[in-house]
Amino acid sequence: MDSMKIACIIVDDEPLALDVLSSLIARVPYLVLEGQYTDPFLAMEHLRKHPVDLLFVDIQMPDITGIELVRTLTNPPKVVFTTAYSSYAVEGFNLNAMDYLLKPISFDRFLTAVNRVRDYLELSRAAQEGIQTEEKKVPDYMFVKSNYKDVKINFSDILYIEGCEDYIRIHTTTKKVMTLLSMKNVMEKLPEQQFIRIHRSFIVAIDKIESKSNERITIGKESLPIGSSYLNEVTKRLYR
């Protein structure tokens, strides 16, 4: 997360205050200033069209306070309030502000605030990435019933699957397993990117294919037929 960039904007009715904050932001490598506004309504429009990670906003402004501005936002970014009046601190924190900076703002105090924001965003993004990874994670094995037992089959061990009359035979690198599944049912259990059906009676592991002719697939010592209705799909998958 060292390369994380935090997009931010500043809202303050005093141009000098904007200059001070923009100079502080420029000293922090991971902060990216995307706008600075003396008009809070223009800032609100910016946030509506271009969401950012962090908002620096002055509390005391003529037309609308910083607190009122934040309350109007449907999905507010993280907020650091700035003001010359310490009496606003409690109300600011009631809006779950990340920090509250009292003017004049020293660089040390500013850095403490933005580091707090960075730490929060890093943890939040890491947690979200973890959730997404778990959602995308799929099992690399399946269990099938064979001889009154549940037998674990690792997908990486499968060479090919042979469909018989009322059962299938799974040929792996170490064993053969018979189970009462249809070809359709077992195909639904297999990772689509790793397996392909080449015949009404055969499903093969793509990475185990050693060669292909117009009508046959070779896996180890086995030469398996390619059904005419499967030929186009097999060719497309193997040569894409």
TrEMBL record:
Residues 7-118 form the Response regulatory domain. SUPFAM superfamilies: CheY-like. It holds the Pfam family Response_reg. One of its GO terms (molecular function) is phosphorelay response regulator activity. Residues 142-240 form the HTH LytTR-type domain. SMART domains: LytTR (SM00850), REC (SM00448). PROSITE patterns: HTH_LYTTR, RESPONSE_REGULATORY. This is Sensory transduction protein LytR.
